[in-house]
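**Discrete fold encoding**
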Amino acid sequence: MSVGMAAPRAAFGCDPDHSRGRQFHEPPSRTRSAFRRDCDRVIHSNAFRRLKHKTQVFVFHEGDHYRTRLTHSLEVAQIARALARQLGLDEDLTETLALAHDLGHPPFGHAGERALDACLKDAGGFDHNAQTLRVLTALEHRYPEFDGLNLTWETLEGVVKHNGPLTDRTGAPLPRYAEHGVPRGITEFNQRFDLQLWSFASLEAQVAAIADDIAYDAHDIDDGLRAGLFRIDDLIEVPLVARIIAAIDRRYPGLDDGRRGAELVRELISHFIGAVAAEAERRIAETKPASANDVRRAEQALVAFPAETAKAEAEIKAFLWTRMYRAERVMKVMRDAEAIVADLFQRYCDHPSDLPPDWLPANGPVAECEADRLLRIRNFIAGMTDRYALAEHQRLFDSTPDLR
């Protein structure tokens, strides 16, 4: 099947008519499937709108054309839907997971996450996936009968397990969680609404996860070129990218670097989508899942890069790590951003009355225990946009880094 053609609806995809339901019962929509309803709720959430002023790599005021968490999430959704369409999966569930996957990120990207994790080291640390789950199940206050968005089991499962199982069947954390354990926010919610942490997630969730990698690689190349951190010809040290650039130059001799870069991004995305679709089709044919539950019980992820493409994708990430993410210009801004988040956290700990009134406990900050105060401050800071964090720092401190 050629890339872009829709496959017939697959039996191993998730079926909205047979969802495992929501934590709180609601009558079904007369006009939308359960998964379309989930997607609409994510799009209309406060947390989703805030993504437009949250850092991807470059802080929002560094340029109008750099990716934000919002534009990144939209690009992930576009790639994920293309893959879901080809594999015969539910596009609405796939889109929901793509749009929701970064809702738990704090301001200033991974710098903000590192700072919050350090601030909370004695209180379980900070994990953006656990925070996304909190946003979706508790921190959005839009409905009269429940906190959160009351999304389907399949959506919450996909948010939590898009990178694979978190535990084995006995409940023991898998190796990547061996040191600190599965984040408490996930385990506590799982006791109330069992997401089967031991199993793989649906193919829709696996597609959304790999679309995130594809979007990161392609669009961070685009942003790095725009920022002048490297030139397009520097990328020829990555063999796959060198082959794509050579093909572009043969097809369009004399093309300017701006258009060469844009064509590279398009071709790279197309290459990755084609490779992932082919590998997924191979693994599905080998495993022969007859249902979404068969996918969950499989011994490996069924959506993945083939070995050669996985090597190329790792080489792209290695290039971006040294030439972009660790570039001194980027690192300076991120160090200052970490300091801003750490300053805010300590200030609110020392002076909890500096929090906005609607973020104070009903009985006042004095009556609140230390553990609850730390978690309240975590949720407040994690929900901040870059510009709100800067404004709060300027309000509370005499000097604020410029982040440029």
User: Anything to note?
Assistant: The chain has a mean pLDDT of 93. Residues 7-16+32-164+200-231+272-404 form a domain with the Hypothetical protein af1432 fold (CATH 1.10.3210.10). The radius of gyration is 22 Å.
